[in-house]
Design goal:
The chain has 330 residues and is an alpha+beta fold. The chain folds into two domains: 56-161, PDZ domain (Pdz3 Domain, Roll); 164-327, no CATH class. Helices cover 42% and strands 18% of the residues. It has twelve helices and 13 strands. It has helices at residues 11-14, 24-48, 73-82, 98-102, 123-135, 187-191, 196-211, 214-220, 232-255, 262-268, 286-302, 311-314; strands spanning 56-59, 62-66, 88-93, 109-113, 116-117, 141-147, 150-156, 159-162, 165-169, 176-178, 182-186, 320-322, 325-327. The strands form four sheets. Strands 2, 3, 4, 5, 6 and 7 form a six-stranded antiparallel β-sheet that branches. Helix 7 (196-211) crosses helix 9. The protein is globular and about 60 Å long.
């Protein structure tokens, strides 16, 4: 569970790694394509596994961005590329989701949400504020948008999904993690996983940490996440949460219709190239992970095809056990 700090749009402004071999417009188009790919997988996992989650949200399958997130040369390029007519736009729409079915389109610009004008904030704060409005919707909600120079009303009805978000960082490192609510993935890792089932395995692993409340439980147990995280009881506790996340990830994937065997395939393929935090004692090696994941995939395939309740879910509010003893500093 690692949580990076360089946001996808911030990367364009703060010197984080961006491919300089393509034009700025191509960068923006590529960011939108990558954002849609990871959001589509995350939404599918969050909807299919809503029975597993303690916290829920209304899901519409829409990815928003604000003009204020783009600065310098990217401001005018964003207007030209994405078609901003207001301060808030639809970056992309998840195929098959409620927004897509309601007729919301990529490039629409939002005027109002549920009869309320856009909040008087800018940039990422504006995106967060409107996402909170959408997440809290109890029933159909209407958006007034500008499309082709004219205003239109789009009425969307949400579906129930697990609470949480996914964020893509423009960063050459190969990393993924979560803070307990947001799953974060670097573009360096995304680019090495062209297979969507294998990418779903990586996202499902981090999402499993969210479902099992691992970050909060590690913090309550006083487990260090720093340079000495892999040592002694700290390393033992973190390794156990990583194994639990691997186990649950298979069920999250299968419930969402992804090939569960792809998780083992990832560690026997692209995952073998990963080093860094995977070598600090907090994770099992790729062979051990692949073996466990393949075994759990076989188990999942032998179960009835319905959401399967696991003991791990019953234990997610309990203190973590470290060296056989429950430890909770709360």
């Amino acid at each position: 569970m690692r949580f990076a700090v360089c946001g996808i749009l911030g990367a364009l402004l703060s010197g984080c790694a961006v491919n300089t071999n393509v034009s700025p417009v191509q960068q923006l188009v590529g960011l939108r394509t990558a954002d849609l790919r990871v959001h589509t997988i995350f939404d599918r996992l969050a909807r299919a596994n809503s029975d597993y989650c303690e916290a829920h949200k209304a899901d519409f399958g829409v990815i928003l961005h604000a003009l204020g997130q783009y600065e310098g040369k990217y401001r005018s390029l964003a207007v030209r590329t994405y078609g901003f007519k207001t301060r808030l736009g639809v970056e992309a729409v998840v195929p098959g989701g409620p927004a897509a079915e309601a007729g919301l389109k990529q490039g629409d610009s939002i005027v109002s949400v549920a009869g309320h004008p856009l909040p008087d904030v800018t940039g990422v704060d504006l995106v967060s504020a409107v996402n909170r409005q959408l997440d809290a919707a109890q029933s159909e909600i209407d958006l007034v948008v500008v499309r082709g120079g004219a205003k239109q009303v789009v009425d969307m009805s949400p579906v129930r999904a697990c609470a949480g978000e996914i964020d893509l960082d423009v960063d050459g490192s190969r990393d993924a993690g979560t803070d307990g609510s947001t799953v974060q993935l670097t573009s360096g890792l995304l680019n090495m996983i062209p297979n969507d089932d294998q990418l779903a395995a990586v996202i499902a692993h981090e999402f499993a940490h969210v479902v099992l409340n691992h970050p909060e439980r590690l913090d309550r147990a006083g487990v260090s996440h720093g340079i000495f995280a892999g040592l002694g009881a700290n390393g033992s506790a973190i390794r156990e949460t990583e194994r639990q996340a691997d186990i649950l990830s298979i069920f999250l994937m299968g419930n969402a219709g992804y090939r569960t065997v792809a998780a083992a395939d990832f560690w026997e393929g692209p995952g073998r190239k990963l080093g860094g935090f995977l070598s600090d004692g907090t994770h099992d090696g790729w062979k051990e992970r692949a073996s466990l994941l393949r075994k759990m995939s076989t188990r999942y395939q032998s179960e009835p095809k319905a959401p399967i309740w696991m003991q791990l879910l019953n234990d997610r509010d309990k203190p973590l056990e470290i060296n056989g003893k429950a430890r909770d500093g709360a």
